[in-house]
Please model this.
Amino acid sequence: MKILFTGGGTGGHFYPIISIAQEIAILSKEYRLIVPELYYMAPSPYNPGILFDNNIIYKKNTAGKRRLYFSVLNFFDLFKTGWGIITALWDVFRIYPDVVFGKGGYASFPVLVAAKLLRIPVMIHESDTVPGRVNKWAGKFAARIAVSYDEAATFFPTDKVAFTGNPIRKELTEPLKSGAHEFLKLSSDLPTLLILGGSLGSQIINDTLIDTLPTLLEKFQIIHQTGRANYKDVLARVETVLINSGNKDRYKPFDYLNVLALRMAAGVADIIVSRAGSAIFEIATWGVPSIIIPITDTNGDHQRKNAFAYARSGAAVVIEEANLTPHILAGEITRIIGDARARETMKRAALSFVKQDASRAIAKEILSIALRHEV
Model:
């Protein structure tokens, strides 16, 4: 049995695939199946070490973006996409998987075209309230469609779609409290903020935080994931902003939080500030109150719709970029941390929002499709 995964080159696409692959390995042992050969096809391996650890074979392909604004790159990317389809046809034919699982994004398009032409069954997963262009198209011929938000189901054929929730890696589902303060060099006497800007970091969140940092550090300690590209710039600016502050040690910047550090940060966080991508589901799993700041210009306005869908559960508040100021951010953080009853309500709502068995449900369906195709 062979299973081919494909998806865009972000953590929001990559890590759910890893969580599903992990469940496929577990289910194969439970059902006493021969462990399937797993492949991942994308322009970049994203994290080669994790692919290796999970016995997933990486196959490179080419894909071009289709931008909704004028750019000369759109012209050249047409050729990249065309070449990507040709090479994907050859590579997918050589592997000839029993099922192709698509996570969405422009990178998955050539592989899904190849699967359609070769009559290989396809399953897709949509992480957002509003599907991206590739998943909308693939939903017309996919055998099964899984969605993270119930709202997304309306975009797909009702007889094919299932509200599964978003797959989360097992190692991230349990926050770590024991030893976290020591590991992160935090005080156990101060409330803790965790600032997440997505896998690449967020410039606007970084800027707003820095502007209000001296005020926040008077009452709180902060773990800040800046994004690798922003790290040096943030450090230099913070050094200037906090030059006369006696609370410098309360600020803990990281370019990137690995699994261990992220679990510990989640374990000690009293509130999380985050974008509205797949991190929402990790935050919900941890049961931590949050402030969600969606990206303004996204395909189908999906981040904003994700944020408000989560906020309607009672687990979070939303600050839109147009309203994001240092004063408003600091005010909301202070208000939530100062209201123990509100935090408890948000925590319960977060835990009720998430579907803990999403990876397992999707993995079961992938195996079911693959076994039918094998026969």
Remarks:
- The first strand starts at residue 2 and ends at 6.
- Residues 174-353 form a domain with the Rossmann fold fold (CATH 3.40.50.2000).
- The chain has two domains: 2-168+356-374, 174-353.
- Residues 181 and 187 are 6 Å apart (CA to CA).
